[in-house]
Design a protein that fits this description.
Layout (H helix, E strand, L loop, with lengths): L1 H13 L9 E2 L2 E9 L10 E9 L3 E6 H12 L6 E2 L7 E5 L4 E8 L2 E8 L6 E9 L2 E10 L2 E8 L17 E7 L4 E10 L5 H7 L18 E2 L6 E3 L1 H13 L1 H8 L12 E2 L19
Parallel strand pairs: 5-16, 8-15
Antiparallel strand pairs: 1-14, 2-3, 2-13, 3-4, 4-6, 6-7, 7-8, 9-10, 10-11, 11-12, 12-13
Helix pairs in contact: 4-5
Length: 290
């Protein structure tokens, strides 16, 4: 276990300031149908997920709606789901506009790791074309970003430079976007306007969250856009090393992050078999052609 103690010390010291971003309050929630064709040999089986973008005045958070509702259901029924020691799909992308920071949260078992970077600067070209999405008057914009050509529709009436994933920088929230090959799509699926007057009620008595579900978007308050208090700053290289170490010795990873598992003690069931790495020959971020 000595290797892991040294490794965790490296994580803590490797990056600073990731958790120092100021929290914000959600004012609107944009829903998307996300699709990514990550394996071109199986075009009939793209990755799909229902996603949400929580938008405040100075920050946003993009996360899986399905993943969070599953976790909320488990809490409501007091059941602890089996947890794979592989890389889970509960990624969250935070955009902090004042500090121009992009922070990605990667949960591994019961630990949260965050990677902080500069908010990408995207060279958008705004087009005069307009369209209507759920009553929102939107305008078209195009860009080349991370190896793909994107078409985006943003709403000037929602003047926050937020968008799903890493998309940002337009004079309005991006409500729909897709690359020209339709291999990566963030399709509009609805919008909710949040009454921020219920924040105090939500903090004290569990006020009604968006879509009538449980406390969907934060462990303590679904309206707060905030990094987890227990988040450990790290880097891409160090996170990849942690995942690789877990694949080589998943039991050691479980013991290091969760503690020894006593078969006679109630607690989370952790699958000791690492999930096989998915086939990804068409990543969402493509290398630029030389």
């Amino acid at each position: 276990m000595k290797w892991f103690i040294v490794f965790m010390m490296g994580l803590t010291l490797s990056a600073s300031g990731a958790t120092a971003q100021q929290p914000d309050t959600t004012r609107i929630v944009v829903h998307y149908k996300f699709m990514h064709l990550r394996d071109t040999t199986r075009r009939d089986n793209p990755v799909r997920d229902n996603m949400v973008l929580l938008v405040g005045k100075t920050a946003s958070a993009y996360r899986s709606y399905d993943k969070q509702t599953q976790q909320d259901l488990a809490r409501q029924t007091k059941q602890i789901p089996a947890i794979s020691a592989g890389r889970p799909s509960g990624l969250v992308y935070y955009q902090f506009f004042r500090g121009k920071k992009l922070v990605r949260k990667e949960p591994i078992l019961f630990s949260n790791f965050v990677i902080s970077d500069a908010l990408p600067v995207i060279s958008w070209h705004i087009n005069p074309d307009t369209a209507n999405f759920g009553g929102l008057h939107c305008q078209k914009a195009t860009c080349h970003f991370k190896g793909r050509d994107y078409i985006a529709w943003f709403c000037p009436d929602l003047p926050v430079p937020a968008g799903p994933w890493k998309l940002n920088g337009l004079p309005g929230v991006v409500v729909e976007a897709y690359d020209t090959k339709k291999e990566v799509c963030f399709m509009f699926d609805g919008i909710e306007r949040i009454d921020t007057r219920i924040v105090a009620d939500d903090q004290s008595s569990g006020g009604k969250p968006p879509m009538g579900g449980g406390p969907l978007f934060h462990e303590d308050n679904h309206l707060v856009i905030k990094l987890p208090d227990d988040a450990t700053p790290t880097t891409e290289k160090e996170l990849a090393r942690l995942i690789e170490l877990g694949r080589k010795d998943p039991k050691a990873l479980v013991v290091a992050l969760v503690g020894p598992q006593d078969p006679g003690t109630p607690g989370p069931k952790v699958d000791m078999m690492m999930a096989p790495a998915p086939v990804v020959n068409n990543p969402i971020e493509l290398p630029e052609k030389q």
